[in-house]
Amino acid sequence: MAETRIVGxxxxxxxxxxxxxxxxxxxxxxxxxxxxxxxxxxVMAPADERTGTREPPADAEAGKVRLLDRPxxxxxxxxxxxxxxxxxxxxxxxxxRYQPAEPxxxxxxEGGILAExxxxxxxxxxxxxxxxxxxxxxxxxxxxxxxxxxxxxxxPDGRAPEGRVDKNGSLASPHIRAYARALIQDLxxxxxxxxxxxxxxxxYPPYSFDSLFLDFSDHAAAAAKRLGFDFDRxxxxxxxxxxxxxxxxxxxxxxxxTTPEGGRYRLLQLLxxxxxxxxxxxxxxxxxxxxxxxxxxxxxxxxxxxKELIPSTFPPPWSAVSGASYGGLAPLSTAIGVKLxxxxxxxxxxFYADALCGANPGLDRRAIVKALxxxxxxxxxxxxxxxxxxxxxxxxxxxEAAQRRKIAAARAEAGETPVIAMAHGYGPVADVRQRLACxxxxxxxxxxxxxxxxxxxxxxxxxxxxxxxxG
Length: 471
Fold this sequence. Notes:
With 471 residues, this protein is of the alpha/beta class. The protein contains 17 helices and eleven strands.
């Protein structure tokens, strides 16, 4: 593993502001023995509940149990406000629907710390990346921003799903794509020293049940026509499957997914009988590939042809419905990040089970949960009877072998392009250690840890221990 060893940690700027450049770098280099760090182009300040956003994120209220391991301004949960860390070049965004956030007094006071951090980190042997959002203007961070109504992805009946965790817009929207191109070019000019860019969610994040059945927006209809997809067939077949699952599910359907055969034949039947669904999967993958291709082109045009480009995506089998085609993304990417954010998996399973149980009240919830566990491959046994977002001191209820299978599947599809397993620092120390070791081993010595705010000193030390070079 020594030859390919990658150990990255996502450090959001508020910790550089509160712990200082040297304090953060000492932890990364000395404790965690990291080789890379990613930041984002904003700065933060405390706010109140009326004017700010909760930190850490509430994840559609399911994640309100989360508390920071590393306090910010003395608190483990708080409300915050942000501003860009740089002054955007407005000429790059001329005529676009989406415009960058305006610099403020906070930008003038604190923004320069990121350029200082980049230089100091590289001087200590770390690669430095900017992490930005693929489809959430202004793109600086998941929680801040979002698309206009007509840029939202939509269900077959035209509705925008409710209760989404993410704020991603439609990957088919020319407005969102144009903004993402401008943002990348702006950041190359503002931070020419960065080694590359990590692009988060160039896909349709499948957190909720309805989000599995996107995208049928007007932008998607136009893109489907341009790309040669039968939009009407996709909409009809996907709508039929969606409505059939929400009201037409039977015990016999559920039993198929819990057999030793695992429901593979039933899945083939579903795709045979709903060819428009298979078309939709290819369509979303095409939109994801186009998104990364455009960002690669934008980098080159801005003089950043040598910059690394690393999309970060959901793991199998979710990647098949999110649009993250590892084989399609591989030729455009320096590496591909595959997320093992295992506190989200039980939350997602609960969201799916709630939707299915609510629409099929005659079915046994435990049977629905067992079928989902098998279908999503998140356990190494029969799994639990029910799931919820784990608390800070609860181990994540997922299987170690299941995590390895997901990374192995992604690596097989990506071919020669490296896959970086992305693990999360949220959770009790012993569980974090096990998950980090699993991710690092499964990817062949490539690990990215999200996020620094959940990494106590003890967890930083264990990153260094788990990933220590052999010999």
